[in-house]
User: Fold these one by one.
Assistant:
Number 1:
Amino acid sequence: MRMAGRDRAWIGRRHIMLAGPAEMPDVTAVRMAAEQLFTMKPDHRLFRRLDPNSTKWIPTPTGDIRRHCVATIVPMDDPDPDDLAGHIERLYTSAVPTLPFQIYVGRQYAALSMAHCLGDGWLSTNAFPDLLRAGLDGDPPVTLTGDETVLPLARALIGFFGRDPRRLLAAVGDSRSSRPKTTQSRFVRAAGTPAPAGTERMPVAAAGNSPSRPVEPAPAVVARRSPGSTLADIRNWRDAHAPESTSATVLFAAARVAFDRCGLGPPAGTGVFTLIDNRRFLPAGATVAGNFAVGLHIDPVDPADPVAISRTLRQTVTSGRSLATLCIVAARGYRQRLPPASLSLPTLQRQPEPTDVRPPTHPCLVLNHLGRVPRFEQLRWIGGSAGTDPGPAAPQLYSASTPGGDDVISVKFVELRGAVSVTATFHPSSFPRSAVAAAIDLLCAGPLDLLTDPDRTVTNPSPVSGANR
């Protein structure tokens, strides 16, 4: 079975999710649910293996399904609630290269480790919780039996550009448009500009002046959860002060300021990298379980202004630029030829591997908002009702992906029960863990403060529940 070009583009990267505390099923029950899924839909992506000699998928034979489920759905000990980030890092290093995915089931926590070439966030936020729920309820996971749309990229292209070919010119023009000048934010100073008096910044050495460091191949992870009232506070503030924005762009703007305050801000005048899901260009009811999102660089007038980010995002989506970019990504993916052993490695590795790396001058922030995750909401969470703060037992859902380069800090936001779970993934050889942790602490403790209080410092950010690492 040939791997699609849009999936090949993600070869070498891995996606990890960790959920809990919640009532979890027995690992045997989850395996049984997977076997039921195979009976109903034997061609589901979860029943594929990577061909060790090519970039092709090998379907799991009926006679091997039980062995496949035992290998891919395994028990685990619950992690220390104060070291969830460390647990995610250990899942990266323990990933089995020949298995495209594994589900780990504990008593109150569960995790997913998935080769990114198998699928994007759509697959992980649907298949993972549905198998857990099926194991708990004893019902077959019928929600996962729908057929995938045939030739989804071609259908999306015809449906969008075919109806109006002028859209293609608009998409090209949008990708080539010159970057507008960065102006002072309506809320705080533009990110990347000198800090106002009284704002202390953690220094990060410039690449040209800093010594090289030993390479650490496995990515580092920082994971935090915001207070339970965060989403309600953001929406109330947005409605009153920035009605053209969204919760996602408020968090994006706050993240830009937080990293800038901690000495990890991108250069002044740079925009925002974010992922756009191209499923929006398909008819209602269409299903794409593989990779269909693409990362784009956008240039809002002010990357610290949620309204400016929202306007630029809407313009980018309306132009179809993300769809055109996915075509280029898919074409390059078909030309990609990598050693078979690289197909599902937990980290992106190149040959020959360097033994040391010089830290980059500035990070490239990649911001990804997964939004609400309704199927995870339906798990039997432990720790009180939505919107509350039950302390260490607070429901948390972290999502980490291998960063796409030495200079990348990938930040993911997940909305869950009134709070925001934030995960930052980066190469520890490139950036100090303490600086990244300080930025995420600051972001989770008060995203609105970052947009309204230009004099807030970062010397001692308030501790927030989550993986304190």
Number 2:
Amino acid sequence: MPAVLPSSPKVSARMSRQASRDTAAELAVRKVLHAWGYRYRTHFPVPGMRRRKIDIAFTRARLAVLIDGCFWHGCPEHATSPKANADWWRQKLDRNIARDLDTNAQLISEGWTVMRFWEHEPPDTVARKVATAVEEKKAARTAPREKPCDRGQHHSGGGTPHGAAAPVLRTRQAKGT
């Protein structure tokens, strides 16, 4: 990306103060999750991508929660396009979106479930979806496993046969996929 001068000193100062972690939306979701008794890691490195971070990571459940800012990540409802240096900003924001997709792919390839939310989504709603996903992962991890049998069918004469697929955890589709 070629070096472009800021459109004004005020814009330069404002952009340099932009939070990249511990945003108001992130803190609000974390506060609700913590109040509900959930414990998590913050700004956890993406496996294989040390410079990228997961906003809220449930490491045991391998659940990555990312809360994206509407401007920086291209929210379809609230994103705006700056008029000054428009081409430079469009390229910058497009790269952010591409980086999000790359991060999603890396996390999924490492066995993580990715949940992305926009900063404008209500914290209680986000926390409820996250808590549900954590509980589903926890239940899948702690569910008693059936022992193999010789008969090739379920002992009770019905129900789920051995080797049936476990329920699939459904999460909101990550943007751009």
Number 3:
Amino acid sequence: MTTLHPPATNKPEPGSPAPDDETSSRDVDAPSAAIASPSELPPSPDPLVIRRKALLRFAMSITALTVIGHAVLGFEQPPIVPIVAVALSYALNVIFEAIDAWAWGRTPEYAGGGSNFFYFLLPAHIAALACALLLYTSVIWPYLLAVTVAASSKYLFRVTVRGRRKHFLNPSNTGIAVTLLLTPLVGFTPPYMFLNNTDGPVDVLIPLGVLMLGTMLNTKLTHRLPLILAWVGGYVLQGVVRSLLFDDPVLSVLGSMTGVAFILFTNYMITDPGTTPMSTRGQIVFGLTTATIYGLLITTQVAYAIFFALVITCALRGAVIYFAPRLKRVRSAGTSAVPAPATH
């Protein structure tokens, strides 16, 4: 039998001074000090808090750009467009959420007080202003069509992820893409509009400011920097390949990357946390896939390919989420159905 002895203690010699706090802290066993109890560890960030911070920052930034654009920069859309678009988006999202919650027997996401209702409306706010910013026409109804498609796509196209039904199409991008496809009189916002009333260094500072703000938000809050790098890198790669295969000038192919519209798409559209992967590997695949599809669409002379490429990529991701577990169950069932070899 092994006898357990109490651990030896380092007692001071008689007459020696007692160890002070600093000396005692250095005498603590290093591995024991490095392992903190769960109660001493800093609390992990609440995903809901992070999501709400991200939504609020994006909503504030796109609202500021809209106001400054109409008041200072010279946006050419009617000023009533963003107001009507936001109001319609609020109403549609509340109505669709109430219907969906009733149909599935769940509590609406906006229930639970004013704070929940406020944050529930932020995605609708962002989607509406994105449609108002990136579409270009002289009449109002195409903007309303885009907002309606954006809101309805969140509830019509859903897959089950970890027991929850989630949309897989980027709402604002889907609304813009469908509107561009169905209404020939609507176009994409021309790049010059974001710098209509500016000149000199300001023409550089505005895109740079939008780029820095969007990159900071995506790095700290949405953690979509790998997706951004994959998308931008893939965009450059497809531009170089096109220039080699089809003699397209590299500078003209890649020149659009310096515009505010491309920066907005890169930092505020493709990085939507609700419709993009969370893992680094998934983000890289998503970004490269979008860039590859964009290059293929441009090669076949498809206009507004950047929006259609993102719709196709989101749809492919939704199909993978839907079919992957079903195929896994089929393979598992097939494996279990194979009889074991007889043993003699």
